[in-house]
Specification:
The chain is of the alpha+beta class. It is built from twelve helices and ten strands. Strands 1, 2, 3, 4, 5, 6, 7 and 8 form an eight-stranded mixed sheet that branches. The protein has a two-stranded antiparallel sheet with strand order 9-10.
C-alpha cells in the first residue's frame, strides 16, 4: 500500500470519523482519566454507589470547574467542549456521566444568568471553580411531571433570607454534593415568585435519604433531599422568574445546556455499545461458513443500521451545542430543536443498545458484564424531563403556532398556568422580558480571597 492509499485508509478510519464530529478535548480530560473511570464502572454498578476514586479523578482533572469562565478560575470550556467530554465520560461510565451532568446543568444555568445580568453571581462561579465544588441539581420533585419552572417547595420570607420546606427527588449526587441548585416558590406569590438558589448541602434543615436503587444508572446516587425549615440567605438566590414561565431566557439557555449534554452522555453510552458489538463481531467465527461474523453482510448491515440512526444525532448534538456557544440566536428560538434532539436521543438509546446487544450475542444477556450494564443504563434515557409526552405536545403546538410551554398542558385554549395563550408581549409561545434580580450584597466568604461556600468545608 503506497502513502496515498495509507492516507486514504486513515481518513476513512471509524474512530477518526467519529472524532471529526467533535472538538479535541484531550487537554481538558486526558484519555488516562477516562480509562481509569471505565475501569471503575463495573464496581460502581455492582455497589450502586460511585467510588470516591471516580469523583477524585474528575476533581483532580479540574472537571467541576470546566464550564465556569476562565476569568473566574474556571476551565472556560465551551458548551460543545463540555458535551464532547460528557460523551467520552458516558462511554466510560454512563452512570457517572449522568450524575455529574446534573452539576453541569446547574452550573450552566448560573453561567447563563451571569452572562445576561453581570451581577455578583460571579462570586458563586468563582467559588465553585476555585474549590472544585460539586453542585447537585435539585429541580425534580414529586408531582411536577418534569416541570422545571414550578415548585411545590415553599419559601417564606425571614428577615434577609428565606425559610424553605419541601422534598426534592431524584437528586443526583445529593449525598456527596457541596451545594444544591434548586428552585422554590415564594409562598407570598407575585410575578417573580419562583426563586432559584444555591445552598450548602450541609446546611441545617437539609437531610439526604438513600432511596436510589434502580435497574440501571445505579451509581448516579440520585437520592432524596428533604428540606425542613432550611435557611437560604438572599445573596444565594441568584435568579427569579414567574412560575410556569416559558419566556425566561435564562431557563431556556439552561435547558439548552441540559438537552445537548444529556444527549451527549447517551451518545457516549451508544458508542460504547457499538464498540462492544464491533469487538464481538470481529472475534466470533461462524464455523460452517469459515468466516468471522464481521465478514458476513447480514451482520455488517445490522451494525450499519444502528449507525444510520446514530450519526445524524451526533452531528445534530454537536451542531446545536455550537449554536448555543455562538449566542447569535435567542435560546428560546432553539428550544424546539433542542427538545426534539433530546427526545430522539431517549428513543434511540434503548433501540440502538438493544440492536448492538443482539450483535454481541448471548453474552449481553448475562447478569454481569459491560453489554448487559449498557442495556440497563440505556433505559434511563426516557425518564429525563421534559419527557416525550410533554415534548411531542410542545412541538405540535409550536408547529401549529399555538402557545406552548415546557410542561404538559391538558387544558385546551389556555396556558398551563391558566393564563390566555398569548403572553403580554403579544407573541405566541414567548414570554415577557423578565429581568432577573441582581444579588444585592456580596455573599459572605465568597470574595476572591475567601471562597468558602455556606457551611461547606
Amino acid at each position: 500500500m503506497n502513502d496515498a492509499d495509507t492516507n486514504q485508509a486513515d481518513a476513512y478510519d471509524y474512530r477518526r470519523g467519529i472524532q471529526a464530529l467533535w472538538p479535541d478535548t484531550e487537554r481538558l480530560l486526558p484519555t488516562s482519566v477516562t480509562d481509569r473511570l471505565a475501569g471503575l464502572a463495573a464496581e460502581n454498578d455492582r455497589t450502586g454507589r460511585l467510588s470516591d476514586r471516580s469523583v477524585v479523578a474528575l476533581r483532580e482533572a479540574g472537571w467541576f470547574g470546566l464550564p465556569v469562565p476562565s476569568e473566574f478560575e474556571g476551565g472556560g470550556g465551551s458548551i460543545e467542549e463540555c458535551c464532547a467530554l460528557q460523551r467520552r465520560i458516558g462511554a466510560a461510565d454512563p452512570a457517572l456521566a449522568i450524575a455529574v451532568n446534573m452539576h453541569l446543568f446547574s452550573v450552566g444555568v448560573l453561567v447563563e444568568h451571569w452572562r445576561r445580568e453581570r451581577d455578583e453571581s460571579w462570586m458563586l462561579l468563582e467559588a465553585i471553580a476555585g474549590q472544585q465544588r460539586i453542585v447537585g441539581n435539585a429541580f425534580a420533585e414529586p408531582g411536577l411531571a418534569g416541570a422545571l419552572t414550578r415548585s411545590h417547595c415553599t419559601a417564606r420570607r425571614n428577615g434577609k433570607g428565606w425559610t424553605v420546606n419541601g422534598v426534592k427527588v431524584p437528586c443526583s449526587l445529593a449525598e456527596r454534593s457541596d451545594l444544591l441548585c434548586l428552585q422554590v416558590r415564594d409562598e407570598a406569590g407575585g410575578p417573580e415568585s419562583l426563586l432559584v438558589a444555591l445552598v450548602a448541602t450541609d446546611s441545617p434543615g437539609i437531610t439526604v435519604e438513600r432511596t436510589w436503587d434502580t435497574l440501571g444508572m445505579r451509581a448516579s446516587e440520585s437520592d432524596t433531599v428533604r428540606l425542613r425549615d432550611c435557611a437560604i440567605p438572599d445573596e444565594l438566590v441568584f435568579h427569579r422568574t414567574r412560575p410556569g414561565s416559558h419566556g425566561d431566557e435564562v431557563f431556556a439557555a439552561g435547558l439548552g445546556w441540559f438537552c445537548v449534554s444529556t444527549t451527549a452522555c447517551y451518545l457516549g453510552l451508544i458508542s460504547a455499545a457499538v464498540d462492544q458489538a464491533r469487538t464481538a463481531l470481529e472475534g466470533s467465527r461462524v464455523t460452517h461458513l469459515g468466516a468471522s461474523r464481521s465478514e458476513l453482510p447480514s451482520f455488517q448491515s445490522a451494525l450499519g443500521a444502528v449507525l444510520v440512526d446514530v450519526l445524524p444525532l451526533e452531528a445534530a448534538c454537536a451542531g446545536l451545542a455550537r449554536q448555543l456557544d455562538a449566542r447569535t440566536a435567542d435560546p428560546r428560538s432553539l428550544t424546539p430543536a433542542l427538545l426534539a434532539l433530546k427526545c430522539r436521543a431517549a428513543e434511540l438509546a434503548t433501540r440502538a443498545v438493544e440492536a448492538t446487544s443482539e450483535l454481541v450475542g448471548v453474552a449481553s444477556y448475562a447478569a454481569t458484564g459491560t453489554a448487559s450494564r449498557l442495556l440497563r443504563d440505556a433505559h434511563a434515557a426516557r425518564f429525563h424531563p421534559p419527557t416525550r409526552f410533554a415534548t411531542r405536545q410542545l412541538l405540535g403546538r409550536w408547529a401549529l403556532d399555538l402557545p406552548f410551554t415546557f410542561e404538559l398542558n391538558e387544558r385546551p385554549g389556555s396556558a398551563p398556568d391558566g393564563h390566555p395563550g398569548y403572553e403580554p408581549d403579544g407573541r405566541r409561545g414567548a414570554g415577557p422580558d423578565e429581568r432577573c434580580s441582581a444579588v444585592p450584597d456580596a455573599p459572605p466568604g465568597l470574595g476572591r480571597k475567601q471562597r468558602s461556600v455556606g457551611g461547606a468545608p
